[in-house]
Amino acid sequence: MISNSTPEKCSLNNLQCEITFSISNKGKRLLIFKNYVFRCNKTTKSKIYWMCSESECGVYIHTNTTDELICINGNHNHSANPDQLETKLLRDKMKERILSETTSITKIYDEEIAKANLSKGVAAILLTVIEYRAL
Residue ranges of the FLYWCH-type domain (predicted)? Predict the structure, then answer.
């Protein structure tokens, strides 16, 4: 088991932690916290329960329905992959523009790549413009 940090237990002190959201390939919301991706497991009237997207990992997060962090529990048994996450977020931006604009795919791809200031790791795993045309 890989322990990236000390376990974070439920605490009101963690409410200020930075969380962001993205959309999965199936159109579901994803929560992103410290370069780890979480998927929604259950929603109630007052809470949303999130599980780490790695199937064997037991880390979970609770937020309220206005996306404020309530608690985090557990240690990840895998490493975060910031390059893969950055690639996903860039791909999401491109896909959104491709679907909503009349600008050519090649131009959107070039503009987003130029704005992104990519690391070598991200550049190595990023789809080519030809692959984006197949989206």
Answer: 21-78
**pLDDT at position 94:** 85
Q: Is residue 65 included in any domain, yes or no?
A: yes
Note whether 90 and 107 are same-domain residues.
Answer: yes
Who's near 130: CB < 8 A, 6+ residues apart? none
Q: How far is CA 48 from the centre of its chain?
A: 16
By residue range, what is the domain housing residue 33? 12-73
Closest C-alpha to 79, from 54, 60, 62: 54
- How far is it, in rounded angstroms, from Cα 58 to Cα 92? 26
Is pTM beyond 0.85? Reply is no
